[in-house]
Amino acid sequence: MPTIIKAYSPNFSPSTHKKIGVQIHKTLGLMPGTLEWLQNPESQASSHVLFARNGFIYELVDLKDRSWSAGVISNPSPRARNIMLKTMQGEWIKPGHYLVQCEFECLANQTFTKEQYESAVWYFNNKLGFKLESKYFLEHQDTADYKPDLDAERVEILKRLNMPEIVVPKPKDATLKKLLLQLKVVQLRLVVARLLLKLFKRK
């Protein structure tokens, strides 16, 4: 069992949503500074959990609350759109309300350590309070396309959890087919119009 440290952050909001999945992030900084940042009220940032490179697990925000993470939504991926929640007005609900936000101590040019993978797998199997499914497992880039790509790390964790990946069809593929079909219809109408014009000219 990994070492678990209570390191509560004041940066959270109450939430009425139940957690249904997880979302992983890179801190882009190292301990202890990255933990201090997530606990600093001035940062306006936090996560539910922080996985240190040595395998230690820091619990910052209670899972029933919303951690201040993934607050900006930009061009969500098909995988994210498949599970993201919206308000009655059609606006995206911030993922921290319904996804457990997990920061991994990691610089931009680094990947997760063996200890981090082992701690994450243990945590997801024992501490979430619900059964995790692969379709509810997102990386930060899924909800903000300008964030670091963590798909390789996501896939590795799923593999260690013995979870099959669910591939969501890309909407752009369907949109392209629809556009091509519409183009063919327009072209057909033009051909018909030209034929009718020739018939009228002969009369």
In round numbers, the mean pLDDT is 91
Provide the CATH topology of the largest domain: Lysozyme-like
* Radius of gyration (Å): 23 Å
Shape: elongated
Which homologous superfamily in CATH is the superfamily of the largest domain?
Answer: Peptidoglycan recognition protein-like
What is the overall number of helices?
6
Question: For the terminal residues, how far apart are their CA atoms?
Answer: 90 Å
SSE ordering: EEEHEEEHEHEHHH
CATH architecture of the largest domain: 3-Layer(aba) Sandwich
Q: Strand count, sense and closure of the main sheet? A: 6 strands, mixed
Beta-strand level of the residues, as a percent range?
5-15%
Strand elements, count: 8
**The CATH C-level class name of the largest domain:** Alpha Beta
Number of domains: 2
Find the structural class using helix and strand composition. alpha/beta
Helix content: 25-40%
What's the arrangement of strands in the largest beta sheet?
A: 1-5-4-7-3-8
The parts where pLDDT drops under 50 for at least 5 residues are none
